[in-house]
Structure to design on (286 residues):
C-alpha cells in the first residue's frame, strides 16, 4: 500500500477540535465513572476482560479471517448497523449507522481534499456487524488492548475486571513484553478481538485500495491505551510511530462528532456511495 505522506498537516495541532455537539465539554466524553449508561458499559467490559485471552483471540482469527461468512456491499453493511446500539459506549444510545455518517461528515468538513479519510470515517465501525451474526458485543465493541503481555493500567476498568482472565495469572504473559520482542511492531501483536481487526482483515482480503494510513485508523482506532495514553510504545516500530499522528487525528472525529442531532442519511448516501465505488466497490467477502 502506498503512503500518502509522513503525517497530517502539522498545523492541525494548533486548530480546535471538531465542534463539540450537544453543548458537551470534551471532559464529558468517555466518562467511565458515572452516567445513565454506566452499568451497561461496565458489564460489557467485565465480560470482555474476563474472556479476551490469547487463546480466545487466536480462535477468533481462525473463525473470521477467511471472510467466508457472506457477501454484501459496504453500504449494505452500514445500513445493517441501524439494528445495533454499541453497549460499550457511554456517549451514545442510538444506532451505530448514524455515528458513521457523523464521523464522516466531521472529517469531510476539516479534510475536504482527503476522500479516503472521509470514507474511513464512514466505515470504521462496520466490523461491528459481527454482533448481528451471533458474536456477543464484548467480542465486537469497546476499547482494544494487546493480549499475550501484561494488561496496562490505562485499559478501561483495569483494576476490577481482569481478575478471572486466565492470562492474568500466566507468568509467560503477564510481563511487560510477554510473548513479544522489543519494537516488534503492532503488525506482530495480537489485539483483543473486535470490529477493528475484523474490518481490517475484510479490507485486506478484498484488496480495497484505502491507503495504509486509513487502514491503520481502521485497525487501531479503538486502541485507546496506545493512541490516547501512550502505553505499549515498547512494542512499536518506526512504522507504528509514523502512523500514530494519523490515528490521533482520526480519533478527534470519532469521539467528538457524537451527537443526538442525527444526520440526514438519505441526502448523504449518494456522495459516500461514490467513495465506496472508488475504494471498495461491489460486493465484499465478509
Amino acid at each position: 500500500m502506498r503512503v500518502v505522506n509522513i503525517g497530517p498537516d502539522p498545523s492541525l495541532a494548533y486548530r480546535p477540535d471538531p465542534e463539540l455537539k450537544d453543548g458537551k465539554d470534551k471532559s464529558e466524553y468517555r466518562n467511565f465513572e458515572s452516567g445513565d449508561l454506566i452499568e451497561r458499559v461496565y458489564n460489557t467490559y467485565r465480560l470482555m476482560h474476563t474472556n479476551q485471552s490469547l487463546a480466545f483471540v487466536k480462535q477468533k482469527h481462525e473463525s473470521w479471517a477467511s471472510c467466508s461468512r457472506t457477501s454484501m456491499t459496504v453500504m449494505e453493511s452500514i445500513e445493517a448497523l441501524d439494528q445495533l446500539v454499541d453497549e460499550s459506549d457511554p456517549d451514545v444510545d442510538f444506532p451505530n449507522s448514524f455515528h458513521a455518517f457523523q464521523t464522516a461528515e466531521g472529517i469531510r468538513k476539516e479534510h475536504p481534499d482527503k476522500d479516503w479519510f472521509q470514507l474511513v470515517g464512514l466505515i470504521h465501525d462496520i466490523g461491528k456487524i459481527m454482533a448481528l451474526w451471533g458474536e456477543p458485543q464484548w467480542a465486537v465493541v469497546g476499547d482494544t488492548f494487546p493480549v499475550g503481555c501484561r494488561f496496562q493500567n490505562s485499559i478501561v476498568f483495569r483494576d476490577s475486571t481482569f481478575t478471572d482472565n486466565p492470562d492474568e495469572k500466566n507468568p509467560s504473559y503477564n510481563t511487560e513484553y510477554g510473548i513479544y520482542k522489543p519494537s516488534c511492531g503492532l503488525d506482530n501483536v495480537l489485539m483483543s478481538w473486535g470490529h477493528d481487526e475484523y474490518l481490517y482483515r475484510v479490507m485486506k482480503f478484498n484488496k480495497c485500495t484505502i491507503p495504509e494510513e486509513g487502514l491503520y485508523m481502521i485497525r487501531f482506532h479503538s486502541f485507546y491505551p496506545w493512541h490516547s495514553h501512550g502505553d505499549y510504545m515498547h512494542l512499536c516500530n518506526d512504522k507504528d510511530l509514523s502512523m500514530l499522528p494519523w490515528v490521533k487525528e482520526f480519533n478527534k472525529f470519532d469521539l467528538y462528532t457524537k451527537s443526538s442531532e442525527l444526520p440526514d442519511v438519505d441526502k448523504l448516501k449518494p456522495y459516500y456511495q461514490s467513495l465506496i465505488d472508488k475504494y471498495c466497490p461491489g460486493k465484499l467477502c465478509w
